[in-house]
Please model this.
Amino acid sequence: MARQDAISVVGVSGSLRAQSCNTATLRTACDLAPDGMTISIFDLAPIPLFNQDLEKDGLPAVVETMRQTMAAADGLLIVTPEYNSSIPGVLKNALDWGSRGASHPFCDKPTAIMGATPGMGGTARAQTHLRQILGRLNARMINNPEALIANAPERIGPDGLIGDTPTRAVIQHVLTALKDLIEQHR
Amino acid sequence: MARQDAISVVGVSGSLRAQSCNTATLRTACDLAPDGMTISIFDLAPIPLFNQDLEKDGLPAVVETMRQTMAAADGLLIVTPEYNSSIPGVLKNALDWGSRGASHPFCDKPTAIMGATPGMGGTARAQTHLRQILGRLNARMINNPEALIANAPERIGPDGLIGDTPTRAVIQHVLTALKDLIEQHR
Amino acid sequence: MARQDAISVVGVSGSLRAQSCNTATLRTACDLAPDGMTISIFDLAPIPLFNQDLEKDGLPAVVETMRQTMAAADGLLIVTPEYNSSIPGVLKNALDWGSRGASHPFCDKPTAIMGATPGMGGTARAQTHLRQILGRLNARMINNPEALIANAPERIGPDGLIGDTPTRAVIQHVLTALKDLIEQHR
Amino acid sequence: MARQDAISVVGVSGSLRAQSCNTATLRTACDLAPDGMTISIFDLAPIPLFNQDLEKDGLPAVVETMRQTMAAADGLLIVTPEYNSSIPGVLKNALDWGSRGASHPFCDKPTAIMGATPGMGGTARAQTHLRQILGRLNARMINNPEALIANAPERIGPDGLIGDTPTRAVIQHVLTALKDLIEQHR
Model:
């Protein structure tokens, strides 16, 4: 495949914790990316709290970098924990910065969503909020299949990646759907 | 009324912008607090992005202060903008820190909600998300009346407070309902 | 306990199917009601589709009966399936009729929520919608514990009731919380 | 334009009331359909309450007709009131029937949403629920522009149609976006 045809996806994790099972899911997705797709991780830790007054002299440099990286990508992968029935403030804050201005990187962008929880929920509620937010931003979301990863810690192997076969298959199915959408979108 | 009977409410604004119409609404609420109630503002600007790894040596000092201030208060007032159909990351991030641990200041706490927008929406969608989050935290919310303040900038006077009479009445009604709930709750 | 002190709860199921695992959950709740509480089932099958034009000569008789039954009860128990990430139209239709007029039976009413699914979800999303709707109606909901019954069919015994011990315990915990709220409410 | 190229859209109103401002909005949309698009109304009044037991001998005839009509259409237009912060049971019930089985008419279907209220809200909350439900069904929704029609009754003329020029423009914009999506989709 020629270089210009390679599909580039930017992935973010809503958890900043080093041992996060969501970041482990994101790293696993990088590993399982289908042929012709590369997923690179953008770290949300350096993003400042949103404050419109900070825009007076232009967006903060790290925000500008995030926006350009996302805008240049063919697709997005958002992996989110669930805190208090919604997405983390960390993730929402990044979306708030990302959505500023007349044009933003989410509009019409093929976007896949995954989420992992220690317990049974699998981030069903957080993903609902995330889908509402991304719908408002007119992102093109993968709706099926969903990746709701319950009991996540026990699915992670000693290499820090999801080792559980059915969960890896779900991750692959979502990524394949994302690839199909990106190709249909071009 | 003896000092020990005074009702103390902590108010937060989900916007960090100096000229925010939500912070103006919060300041107006401080002014309009019914007899026997004092509303003090807690600024969310210094709260760091949530990262569970920061908890290893205890909560960050500013987070601990926020939690203790909220825990000591008889009630909470949350004033939220709407960004992308939800609450700001800034506010969700504060709730994420606030909700950590087995006991947290939101459980069973009388809580009032307000929101202001430049346009027509009045934060209806953001308040829906906020109510879901606070319901999960088992807060006691004022459901009626609602304070959905549309076209907010034109309601703000030169003193930076809401000057519009019907809007001031709505703010007062919500605060009176909060006072009633706190008194019934004691 | 004198008869006049007995707690009466009205329960509805959002599924009309005879073998519904949600109706089985409701029947199980009737069985497990704590001492001093009686749960009676109100069947939603005869409720017509909501049409405001039908109100011209007063509410339909079955709707009037539903409203009076609920108004006379000390508390409500709503057991809901999840269809398409929300509550069934059948249940929403009953709430639409029930909420008509200046006074309605949901306002300030202690209300417990349960839900059962054949799969993993346990009605997390349907309950989120239901809580938004009931919050708008100012019902007093039990927020903790939640009763999200996943893989429900395999928990039902030959008698058509939930036989699974941990699930029965969750049902009992919710009913005890409802009883406590009703007693505190009186 | 040859007959086979004409775009057919099926429209439903979530209100059964004869003088409904939502049904008036739907009729206005029929009038304002762009060249090459025809919108026909499917009445939800005869749809029975959903009951899976009714499926034993096949779907009820009216449900089968609704599904075939929707499946044959190039796009859908759903006009919804807001009852208790959500969509009417009448509309959800139709979606519940429509979504049954392995294949259903909503999957990948271009779908536009409108809503009207007597008050200020414009169905913002109902549309949020509707979008969650339709997202789960993998419908292709028009996200921009939104048609949130506040203070609807005063916008309706003596002919029972929306006469207000800016509101008619919003309706046209949504229909044009629907037409574009359908054409891109073919």
Summary: Residues 116 and 149 of chain B are 4 Å apart (CA to CA). Helices of chain B lie at 21-32, 61-72, 89-98, 124-136, 165-185. The first strand of chain B starts at residue 7 and ends at 13. The domain at 7-185 of chain B is CATH 3.40.50.360 (Rossmann fold).
